[in-house]
């Protein structure tokens, strides 16, 4: 049984979502404020977190960042805020999806299923990669390593879902890691926004290609010496992006 943690202070919305997801077979608990929500993450170990931005005791974005510091659990923001800048800020804080209130329960459930499905694919991919590595005598995951020059490199470890830049560990969100995996595995290939969108979100989540631009901007901040003049993640005008080294 998959588990969903709802951090929502509105009792009516929280109870409706809890009841709907419970009827679909999820194990759901709801916390009414940020402190209780954060305290529940580790012991409950949810498969997805549904997070409201406006909580009585703390800002939802701050909570999202705090969870993301120690966990890669998929986070979906559920909020009355509908402006593009608010969606952008949420993605920048580490959220994986965003829904505006009021919303369709059916769509909300579909997105929860999609987030869990992609998270499980991560785990399956990590296990398969580890098995291949062991069969090869413990060799490193060279397929996910792109050497940028003699002493500078970006390395992705699919087992720990971690990225190192010049040997320094850099935290990434689910979507950022998947985008970098595409880039590192296929340097020089031009990816359209739609290509990357399907890679990180699948076919059943209603998101826009603006989300990809946000993830690219965040990645540039993490790997580029000068994000405003990127050397590695290049824009291909009118098409999308490519990784150059």
UniProtKB/TrEMBL annotation:
PROSITE patterns reported for this sequence: OMPR_PHOB, RESPONSE_REGULATORY
Location of 4-aspartylphosphate modifications: 52
Keywords: DNA-binding, Phosphoprotein, Transcription, Transcription regulation, Two-component regulatory system
SMART domains: REC, Trans_reg_C
Protein name: Response regulator
Occurrences of domain OmpR/PhoB-type (ranges): 145-245
UniProt DNA-binding region: 145-245
Ranges for domain Response regulatory: 3-116
Gene3D superfamilies: 3.40.50.2300, 6.10.250.690, Winged helix-like DNA-binding domain superfamily/Winged helix DNA-binding domain
SUPFAM superfamilies the record matches: C-terminal effector domain of the bipartite response regulators, CheY-like
């Amino acid at each position: 049984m998959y588990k969903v943690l709802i951090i929502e202070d509105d009792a009516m919305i929280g109870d409706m979502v809890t009841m709907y997801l419970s009827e679909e077979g999820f194990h759901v608990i709801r916390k009414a404020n940020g402190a209780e929500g954060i305290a529940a993450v580790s012991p409950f170990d949810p498969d997805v977190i549904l997070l409201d931005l406006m909580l009585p005791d703390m800002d939802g974005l701050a909570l999202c960042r705090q969870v993301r510091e120690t966990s890669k659990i998929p986070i979906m923001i559920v909020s009355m805020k509908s402006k593009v800048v608010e969606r952008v800020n949420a993605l920048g804080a580490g959220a994986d999806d965003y829904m505006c209130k009021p919303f369709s329960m059916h769509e909300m459930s579909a997105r929860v299923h999609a987030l869990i499905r992609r998270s499980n694919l991560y785990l399956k991919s990590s296990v398969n990669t580890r098995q291949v590595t062991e069969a090869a005598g413990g060799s490193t995951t060279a397929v996910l390593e792109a050497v940028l020059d003699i002493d500078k490199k970006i390395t992705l470890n699919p087992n720990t879902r971690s990225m190192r830049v010049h040997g320094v560990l850099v935290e990434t969100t689910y979507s950022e890691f998947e985008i970098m995996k595409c880039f590192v595995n296929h340097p020089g290939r031009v990816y359209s926004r739609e290509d990357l969108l399907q890679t990180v979100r699948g076919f059943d989540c209603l998101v826009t290609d603006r989300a990809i631009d946000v993830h690219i901007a965040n990645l540039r901040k993490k790997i580029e010496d000068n994000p405003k003049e990127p050397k590695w993640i290049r824009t291909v005008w009118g098409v999308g992006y490519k990784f150059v080294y």
